[in-house]
Structure prediction request, 121 residues.
Amino acid sequence: MSTTVQPAARTEPATSGERTAHLGVLDGAAAAYGLSAAITIVFNTVLAWIKDAYDPLNNFMAALTGHHWITHGIVNIVVFVVLGAILQKRGFSIDGMWLAWLLGGAVVVGGGGLALWFVLV
Prediction:
């Protein structure tokens, strides 16, 4: 599994005052598993909300592995790996800078959502 970084296409030359970094277009595993990570981060938050609000699901997850958080972690890993594999097989590619912003946004939304949930509940 190799990942290539292709330079971003430019229609005009860079100016001396340009300070924006360009990572280029990511494909292969970097693109697929990067997007999978962003989606899994938000999925983690939503799953935490649902299982804490719906006791039968929480009890079911606890019964599977002995503790609901262990099952929660396993489900997150499965979502990450399966989604990443699907995206990689489809030949997914994404701009590297956009992926970085997407991952950062997912962390902020997911972490903020969990913090707000546990403060309110």
